[in-house]
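Hey L., structure's done. Input below.
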Amino acid sequence: MKHAATAQIEYGPVRGIAGVDTLSAMGLRTGFDRHFHDTYSFGLILSGVERCDVRRSREFFEPGTVPMFNPGEVHDGGPATPEGWSYRMVYIDPALIAGEKLFALPQRRDAPATAAARRLFDAIDCGSELGIEEALSGALDILLDKADRDRGAPATLSKVRELIDAHCCEPLRLHDLCQVIGMSPTRLLRGFEAAYGLTPHRYQQSRRIAKAKRMLLAGTPLVEVATACGYSDQSHLNRWFVRIHGTTPGRLRRAFFS
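Output:
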Protein backbone atom coordinates (compact mmCIF):
# COMPACT_ATOMS: atom_id res chain seq x y z
CA MET A 1 0.00 0.00 0.00
CA LYS A 2 1.15 3.54 -0.80
CA HIS A 3 -0.48 6.33 1.12
CA ALA A 4 -0.42 10.10 0.97
CA ALA A 5 1.97 12.08 3.12
CA THR A 6 -0.92 13.30 5.27
CA ALA A 7 -2.19 9.78 5.99
CA GLN A 8 -1.55 8.35 9.44
CA ILE A 9 -1.61 4.65 10.32
CA GLU A 10 -1.02 3.71 13.94
CA TYR A 11 -1.16 0.19 15.42
CA GLY A 12 -0.93 -0.55 19.10
CA PRO A 13 -1.89 -2.94 21.92
CA VAL A 14 -5.16 -2.57 23.78
CA ARG A 15 -4.27 -1.79 27.38
CA GLY A 16 -4.68 -4.69 29.77
CA ILE A 17 -6.06 -7.23 27.27
CA ALA A 18 -3.56 -9.66 25.76
CA GLY A 19 -4.56 -10.80 22.28
CA VAL A 20 -6.36 -7.60 21.27
CA ASP A 21 -4.70 -4.96 19.08
CA THR A 22 -6.04 -1.72 17.66
CA LEU A 23 -5.53 0.40 14.56
CA SER A 24 -6.23 4.06 13.88
CA ALA A 25 -6.03 5.15 10.23
CA MET A 26 -6.64 8.74 9.21
CA GLY A 27 -6.85 10.32 5.78
CA LEU A 28 -6.17 7.24 3.64
CA ARG A 29 -6.46 7.87 -0.10
CA THR A 30 -5.05 4.67 -1.56
CA GLY A 31 -5.82 1.07 -0.77
CA PHE A 32 -4.72 -2.25 0.67
CA ASP A 33 -4.07 -5.40 -1.36
CA ARG A 34 -6.47 -8.33 -1.00
CA HIS A 35 -5.51 -10.21 2.15
CA PHE A 36 -6.87 -11.75 5.32
CA HIS A 37 -6.14 -11.66 9.04
CA ASP A 38 -6.05 -14.66 11.36
CA THR A 39 -8.07 -12.66 13.89
CA TYR A 40 -11.61 -11.43 14.26
CA SER A 41 -11.69 -7.73 13.42
CA PHE A 42 -14.26 -4.98 13.50
CA GLY A 43 -14.20 -1.22 13.65
CA LEU A 44 -15.87 2.06 12.89
CA ILE A 45 -15.73 4.37 9.88
CA LEU A 46 -15.12 7.90 11.15
CA SER A 47 -15.26 9.89 7.92
CA GLY A 48 -15.22 9.39 4.16
CA VAL A 49 -16.32 6.21 2.38
CA GLU A 50 -14.33 2.99 2.03
CA ARG A 51 -14.76 0.56 -0.85
CA CYS A 52 -14.26 -3.08 0.11
CA ASP A 53 -14.55 -6.25 -1.96
CA VAL A 54 -15.50 -9.06 0.42
CA ARG A 55 -17.71 -12.16 0.25
CA ARG A 56 -17.98 -11.91 -3.52
CA SER A 57 -19.58 -8.47 -3.41
CA ARG A 58 -18.53 -4.84 -3.25
CA GLU A 59 -19.40 -3.07 -0.01
CA PHE A 60 -19.30 0.64 0.76
CA PHE A 61 -18.56 1.58 4.34
CA GLU A 62 -19.93 5.02 5.17
CA PRO A 63 -19.43 7.07 8.37
CA GLY A 64 -20.94 5.23 11.32
CA THR A 65 -20.63 1.85 9.59
CA VAL A 66 -19.10 -1.05 11.56
CA PRO A 67 -16.96 -3.19 9.19
CA MET A 68 -16.57 -6.81 10.35
CA PHE A 69 -14.21 -9.57 9.19
CA ASN A 70 -13.93 -13.15 10.36
CA PRO A 71 -10.58 -14.93 10.68
CA GLY A 72 -9.32 -15.86 7.22
CA GLU A 73 -11.89 -13.73 5.42
CA VAL A 74 -10.33 -12.23 2.30
CA HIS A 75 -10.91 -8.54 1.65
CA ASP A 76 -9.26 -5.40 0.38
CA GLY A 77 -9.90 -1.73 1.07
CA GLY A 78 -9.66 1.58 -0.72
CA PRO A 79 -11.24 5.02 -0.97
CA ALA A 80 -14.61 5.33 -2.66
CA THR A 81 -14.19 9.10 -2.99
CA PRO A 82 -11.16 11.31 -3.71
CA GLU A 83 -11.24 12.62 -0.13
CA GLY A 84 -10.29 9.19 1.23
CA TRP A 85 -11.49 7.77 4.54
CA SER A 86 -10.61 7.46 8.21
CA TYR A 87 -11.42 4.56 10.51
CA ARG A 88 -10.51 2.54 13.59
CA MET A 89 -10.29 -1.22 14.05
CA VAL A 90 -9.68 -3.84 16.73
CA TYR A 91 -8.11 -7.26 16.04
CA ILE A 92 -9.06 -10.08 18.41
CA ASP A 93 -7.30 -13.42 18.89
CA PRO A 94 -9.84 -16.20 18.11
CA ALA A 95 -8.85 -17.89 21.38
CA LEU A 96 -10.70 -15.08 23.18
CA ILE A 97 -14.00 -15.86 21.43
CA ALA A 98 -16.01 -18.52 23.23
CA GLY A 99 -18.06 -20.96 21.15
CA GLU A 100 -18.62 -21.26 17.42
CA LYS A 101 -19.37 -17.69 16.38
CA LEU A 102 -18.88 -15.53 13.30
CA PHE A 103 -19.81 -12.12 11.97
CA ALA A 104 -22.81 -12.93 9.81
CA LEU A 105 -22.48 -9.75 7.73
CA PRO A 106 -19.50 -7.73 6.45
CA GLN A 107 -20.98 -4.53 7.88
CA ARG A 108 -23.59 -3.18 10.27
CA ARG A 109 -25.13 0.31 10.11
CA ASP A 110 -27.76 0.01 12.83
CA ALA A 111 -27.67 2.20 15.92
CA PRO A 112 -26.84 -0.57 18.46
CA ALA A 113 -23.82 -1.72 16.45
CA THR A 114 -22.49 1.80 15.90
CA ALA A 115 -23.01 2.71 19.56
CA ALA A 116 -21.22 -0.45 20.72
CA ALA A 117 -18.20 0.31 18.53
CA ARG A 118 -18.09 3.92 19.75
CA ARG A 119 -18.21 2.78 23.39
CA LEU A 120 -15.29 0.43 22.78
CA PHE A 121 -13.05 3.06 21.19
CA ASP A 122 -13.98 5.59 23.86
CA ALA A 123 -12.97 3.04 26.49
CA ILE A 124 -9.70 2.29 24.69
CA ASP A 125 -8.90 6.00 24.63
CA CYS A 126 -10.04 7.02 28.08
CA GLY A 127 -11.23 4.06 30.12
CA SER A 128 -9.81 1.60 32.63
CA GLU A 129 -8.97 -2.01 31.86
CA LEU A 130 -12.33 -3.08 33.29
CA GLY A 131 -14.13 -0.53 31.15
CA ILE A 132 -12.35 -1.77 28.02
CA GLU A 133 -13.20 -5.39 28.81
CA GLU A 134 -16.85 -4.53 29.40
CA ALA A 135 -17.10 -2.52 26.18
CA LEU A 136 -15.39 -5.23 24.13
CA SER A 137 -17.59 -7.97 25.58
CA GLY A 138 -20.70 -5.90 24.93
CA ALA A 139 -19.71 -5.18 21.33
CA LEU A 140 -18.96 -8.83 20.57
CA ASP A 141 -22.28 -9.87 22.10
CA ILE A 142 -24.08 -7.50 19.72
CA LEU A 143 -22.02 -8.20 16.58
CA LEU A 144 -21.31 -11.95 16.63
CA ASP A 145 -23.76 -14.66 15.56
CA LYS A 146 -23.75 -18.44 15.82
CA ALA A 147 -21.49 -19.91 13.14
CA ASP A 148 -22.96 -21.50 10.03
CA ARG A 149 -20.68 -24.41 9.24
CA ASP A 150 -22.71 -25.79 6.33
CA ARG A 151 -20.78 -23.77 3.80
CA GLY A 152 -17.43 -25.00 2.56
CA ALA A 153 -15.07 -25.51 -0.36
CA PRO A 154 -14.65 -28.87 -2.14
CA ALA A 155 -12.52 -31.31 -0.16
CA THR A 156 -9.80 -31.28 -2.83
CA LEU A 157 -9.32 -27.52 -2.56
CA SER A 158 -9.47 -27.68 1.24
CA LYS A 159 -6.57 -30.11 1.04
CA VAL A 160 -4.54 -27.58 -0.96
CA ARG A 161 -5.32 -24.84 1.54
CA GLU A 162 -4.32 -27.08 4.46
CA LEU A 163 -1.05 -27.88 2.69
CA ILE A 164 -0.31 -24.16 2.19
CA ASP A 165 -1.24 -23.46 5.83
CA ALA A 166 1.20 -26.11 7.03
CA HIS A 167 4.06 -25.09 4.71
CA CYS A 168 3.37 -21.41 4.00
CA CYS A 169 6.96 -20.35 4.77
CA GLU A 170 8.52 -22.99 2.53
CA PRO A 171 8.97 -22.89 -1.26
CA LEU A 172 5.84 -24.27 -2.92
CA ARG A 173 5.34 -25.12 -6.59
CA LEU A 174 2.10 -25.09 -8.54
CA HIS A 175 3.00 -28.40 -10.19
CA ASP A 176 3.32 -30.09 -6.81
CA LEU A 177 0.01 -28.70 -5.57
CA CYS A 178 -1.70 -29.97 -8.71
CA GLN A 179 -0.23 -33.43 -8.26
CA VAL A 180 -1.50 -33.65 -4.69
CA ILE A 181 -5.14 -33.38 -5.82
CA GLY A 182 -4.88 -34.55 -9.44
CA MET A 183 -6.07 -31.27 -10.95
CA SER A 184 -4.76 -29.19 -13.83
CA PRO A 185 -3.11 -25.84 -13.05
CA THR A 186 -5.94 -23.90 -14.69
CA ARG A 187 -8.65 -25.71 -12.73
CA LEU A 188 -6.72 -25.40 -9.48
CA LEU A 189 -6.09 -21.67 -9.87
CA ARG A 190 -9.67 -20.88 -10.88
CA GLY A 191 -11.20 -23.15 -8.26
CA PHE A 192 -8.99 -21.98 -5.40
CA GLU A 193 -9.59 -18.30 -6.08
CA ALA A 194 -13.34 -18.87 -6.42
CA ALA A 195 -13.41 -20.73 -3.09
CA TYR A 196 -11.05 -18.57 -1.03
CA GLY A 197 -10.86 -15.21 -2.80
CA LEU A 198 -7.11 -15.40 -3.49
CA THR A 199 -4.82 -17.37 -5.77
CA PRO A 200 -2.64 -19.97 -3.98
CA HIS A 201 0.35 -17.63 -4.14
CA ARG A 202 -1.50 -14.65 -2.68
CA TYR A 203 -3.03 -16.91 -0.02
CA GLN A 204 0.46 -18.10 0.90
CA GLN A 205 1.67 -14.50 1.21
CA SER A 206 -1.23 -13.53 3.49
CA ARG A 207 -0.54 -16.56 5.66
CA ARG A 208 3.17 -15.65 5.81
CA ILE A 209 2.42 -12.07 6.81
CA ALA A 210 0.01 -13.26 9.51
CA LYS A 211 2.79 -15.42 10.94
CA ALA A 212 5.30 -12.58 10.63
CA LYS A 213 3.01 -10.28 12.62
CA ARG A 214 2.61 -12.86 15.39
CA MET A 215 6.38 -13.28 15.59
CA LEU A 216 6.96 -9.53 15.65
CA LEU A 217 4.52 -9.06 18.50
CA ALA A 218 6.25 -11.89 20.38
CA GLY A 219 9.48 -9.86 20.22
CA THR A 220 11.35 -11.88 17.59
CA PRO A 221 14.12 -9.84 15.87
CA LEU A 222 13.23 -8.64 12.38
CA VAL A 223 15.97 -10.56 10.62
CA GLU A 224 14.78 -13.80 12.25
CA VAL A 225 11.18 -13.05 11.28
CA ALA A 226 12.16 -12.52 7.63
CA THR A 227 14.13 -15.78 7.52
CA ALA A 228 11.54 -17.86 9.38
CA CYS A 229 8.70 -16.62 7.17
CA GLY A 230 10.47 -17.44 3.91
CA TYR A 231 11.55 -13.97 2.77
CA SER A 232 14.90 -13.43 1.10
CA ASP A 233 15.68 -10.41 3.31
CA GLN A 234 14.06 -7.72 5.44
CA SER A 235 13.26 -5.48 2.47
CA HIS A 236 11.30 -8.35 0.88
CA LEU A 237 9.32 -8.74 4.12
CA ASN A 238 8.83 -4.98 4.32
CA ARG A 239 7.31 -4.77 0.83
CA TRP A 240 4.70 -7.44 1.51
CA PHE A 241 3.97 -6.15 5.01
CA VAL A 242 3.24 -2.63 3.75
CA ARG A 243 0.94 -3.96 1.03
CA ILE A 244 -1.22 -5.69 3.65
CA HIS A 245 -0.85 -3.63 6.83
CA GLY A 246 0.04 -0.20 5.47
CA THR A 247 3.11 0.07 7.69
CA THR A 248 6.53 -1.56 8.00
CA PRO A 249 7.33 -4.36 10.46
CA GLY A 250 9.73 -2.04 12.28
CA ARG A 251 7.12 0.68 12.82
CA LEU A 252 4.57 -1.89 13.95
CA ARG A 253 6.97 -3.36 16.50
CA ARG A 254 7.91 0.08 17.85
CA ALA A 255 4.22 0.84 18.37
CA PHE A 256 3.96 -2.16 20.68
CA PHE A 257 7.33 -2.06 22.43
CA SER A 258 8.26 1.64 22.60
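The two ends are 24 Å apart (CA to CA). The mean pLDDT is 92.

-- N.
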